[in-house]
Specification:
Number of strands: 5
Strand content: 5-15%
Number of helices: 13
Oligomer: single chain
Helix content: over 70%
Structural class: alpha+beta
Radius of gyration: 51 Å
Order of helices and strands: HHHHHHHHHHHEHEEHEE
Shape: rod-shaped
Largest sheet: 5 strands, mixed
Strand order of the largest sheet: 1-2-3-5-4
Distance between the termini: 60 Å
Length: about 425
């Protein structure tokens, strides 16, 4: 982790601070030697102890590079420096500039249990300097010494408390930063995993879309071209058995109409698969025509009923309803043998309801579905169409009682 500016300043002071304070003590002690009344013994002591302090500091810097944490060596060096500073301050009070180093370094150089004693020793040296030097002479100087010592210790206690709180705060901050870095790393990994998963989901969605589009195309072709061809075949079979020419011509015209209609549906499928019947008419009109044409073609009585207020539906919804009607009527023509059929389109609030019923043969809903040889999509195809537009389809039928089919889709209005 990169060091903060405060940590860099502390490292610089640990390296150069004691040297600077020793130099200040030497300069101020030399200038004040006569003023403070230094005797010859004091001068000699300073001449010996100042170089000793310099050597001590060099050794201390070397020891700290090898073992930066508090140790026995650090305790011995701290005490030795305090002793040198005490004697220098005894010789000249201005050497307290050097002694003050103990305040700053005790918390980092000493074990936790020895920090307070180390600060006390430094306070004793500083108090002796502040009362004019060692030793105090008389009761009043000694009282002053203890008063100054108490003040120093009080200030030391306050600042030590502040330092501990700041250290705790920095520790919490460092832990928070480390936790944030771990969280950011985990988040980055999660983002990379999510990106890979997103790419995988896109591929799967694309494949699912292709498969769904294939099913939709198959249903569209079945509902348009296949049904049209089925109708043409039915009309041609009638022509083959027609008793007279007018009847044959009538069914040939119907077959030709179905062929033209199927061709139009095929062309429309190529473009957008929208039913031809919805190109010029709205859904109710298209359903009415589809039911009428189916009834005329099959001979089954067919009716279309509209309830509610008709609205212009979204193209996809309208096409879905029309395709369901076409498929259902195709099933009635092929399987039901019905005589009547009815289609009801209801606009009810926020949904559209389509009901298709017939009085044909019906079937057993629990019987397994049998796919016709013609490849019809039947009920599964109609149900899939309804579900594709968020709708549903239900069927009611019993053998001999006809069939009722109901589809419900959301009322989604035209988007233009």
């Amino acid at each position: 982790m990169t060091n903060t500016p405060l940590q860099q300043y502390r490292a610089s002071f640990d390296t150069w601070g004691p040297w600077a304070l020793l130099a200040v003590g030497v300069v101020t002690g030399t200038l004040s030697a006569r003023l403070t009344g230094m005797d010859r013994a004091g001068v000699i002591a300073c001449a010996v102890l100042v170089p000793a302090a310099a050597v001590l500091q060099l050794y201390w810097a070397r020891a700290k590079r090898k073992r930066p944490d508090p140790s026995r060596t650090g305790v011995c060096l701290f005490l030795l420096r305090w002793a040198i500073a005490f004697v220098l301050t005894w010789a000249n009070p201005f050497f307290a500039f050097y002694a003050v180093t103990g305040y700053y370094t005790a918390a980092r150089e000493l074990p936790r249990r020895l920090v307070l004693p180390g600060l006390f020793l430094t306070a004793v040296t500083m108090a002796g300097s502040e009362i004019g030097g060692w030793p105090p002479h008389g009761v009043i100087p000694w009282l002053g010494f203890f008063l100054v010592l108490a003040v120093n210790m009080g200030l030391v206690g306050v600042f030590t408390r502040f330092a501990e709180q700041e250290q705790t705060r920095l520790g919490v901050q460092a832990e928070t930063i480390a936790e944030l870095e771990r969280t950011n790393t985990a988040l980055q990994q999660a983002l990379e995993e999510n990106a890979a998963l997103h790419e995988q989901l896109l591929v799967q969605a694309r494949e699912a879309g292709v498969a769904d589009e294939r099913r939709r195309l198959a249903a569209e072709i079945h509902d348009t071209i296949a049904q049209g061809l089925t109708g043409i075949i039915a009309q041609l079979q009638v022509v083959a058995n027609a008793p007279d020419l007018p009847t044959a011509r009538t069914h040939l015209e119907r077959a030709a109409g179905l062929a033209r209609h199927s061709l139009g549906e095929a062309r429309r499928s190529v473009h957008n698969l929208a039913p031809v019947a919805l190109e010029s008419d709205q859904l109710p009109e298209a359903l009415k025509k589809t039911v009428a044409e189916w009834g005329e073609r099959t001979g089954v009585r067919a009716e279309f009923t509209l309830t509610g207020t008709a609205e212009q539906l979204h193209d996809e919804v309208a096409a879905t309803i029309l395709r369901i009607v076409q498929e259902a009527l195709s099933n009635v023509a092929r399987h039901a043998r019905a005589t009547r059929a009815g289609v009801t389109l209801s606009f009810a609030g926020d949904e559209v309801i389509l009901d298709i019923r017939d009085d044909g043969a019906g079937f057993d809903l629990l019987a397994p579905a049998v796919r016709s040889r013609s490849g019809g999509f039947g009920l599964p195809g109609m149900r899939a169409r309804a579900e594709r537009v968020a709708g549903s389809l239900t069927v009611e039928s019993e053998p001999g009682l006809g069939t009722a089919l109901s589809a419900r889709v959301p009322l989604v209005r035209h988007d233009r």
